[in-house]
Amino acid sequence: MYDKWNLPRRRDKIVQRRAVTAVLAAAALLLTAGCSSDDGGSPGGDGSAPSSRTSGQASPPERSGEQTPPAKGSVKVLRTVATGLKTPWGLAALPDGDLLVSSRDEATITRVDGKTGKKTELGEVPGVSPAGEGGLLGIALSPEYASDHMIYAYFTSASDNRIVRMIYDEKKPSGEQLGAPDTVLRGIPKGVIHNGGRIAFGPDKMLFAGTGESGDTGLSQDKESLGGKILRITPEGEPAPGNPFPDSPVYSYGHRNVQGLAWDAKQRLFASEFGQNTWDELNAIKPGDNYGWPEAEGRSDEGGFHNPLEQWSTGEASPSGIAYAEGSIWMAGLRGQRLWRIPLKGTEASAEPQAFFEGEYGRLRTVLPAGENRLWLVSSNTDGHVEPKDGDDRILELEVS
């Protein structure tokens, strides 16, 4: 059965795997008309969509009861952790407080000292083929990282998007610390646009991946395809036990381009998603549900589709990473160039979304929990859509409430 998903039946020990030769494919950035792609908007569009509101990582510590957060929150920049990053995309926090950040276009993973901001390159991930929105995207640490020192990565190859895992050996010289990649899942459709790319281990220690439909809208409703889905697999790449469709890694479908994954204190999953030219979405994810694309963009009166809990015009959001903290989902906006706070009551918004940093730090790519009432926030101004400023790209540490 797993051959259908191109899943290997047997894996050798990772340390024995030979590295795949890096293949770099040049491709011109394609932006289709009316497409909210990685730049978060229709090329040449006026952004005059309707008003913003029409009504990996581990789960945070459980709190007693479930309290509704205040309608208004606050954000304070505590410090700039690091500057001078090139096309940062994925972010993972090491147990000692240092950070790992992936570079989409350079296909490298860099360690950032959490105190000094010093950058040390672990190495280049072989087999990455950067082009358009593709390249080295999300990264996540193994749930057993303390013992296996394994880093998982989602990237675009010459033929597909795939998920690999690599041993991180800190004893080796800088630039040579990544072991040979072991492919755990291949065959995710690739394109110049809509490659998805966010991965995160859930509270159940299963690996979740947000994928895109690669510009082929029909894939989102095709449950036999890995495109336009949220996937749930074991650390070894098998369909995870309890998935809604037998022997399938598909967890939910009908997505256009999933960019963010986060769990609340009750272990409920939320996901952000690029719309086309009208609505971007924040969704509460239920296994097996259909989120509507391409039949529905944003809320729909048609039966059978799971409506988003919030939606925004593409000029206000074009969301990428999300994180949960202080009773709210925090959502990074690319084209919107702002950080959104969405206070929650269960799987519904308890108040109007609130925007911070509008235009202050430019495009925002990734947000990650950094401890109690703290977040890491990563900008994305070197990805070819805007003119970078001095110091771009950067990681900020935030205090939020």
UniProtKB/TrEMBL annotation:
Residues 34-75 are annotated as: Disordered. Gene3D superfamilies: TolB, C-terminal domain. PANTHER family: HEDGEHOG-INTERACTING PROTEIN, HIPL1 PROTEIN. It comes from Streptomyces thermospinosisporus. It holds the Pfam family GSDH. InterPro entries: 6-blade_b-propeller_TolB-like, Glc/Sorbosone_DH, Quinoprot_gluc/sorb_DH_b-prop. This is PQQ-dependent sugar dehydrogenase. Residues 85-385 form the Glucose/Sorbosone dehydrogenase domain. It comes from the Bacteria.
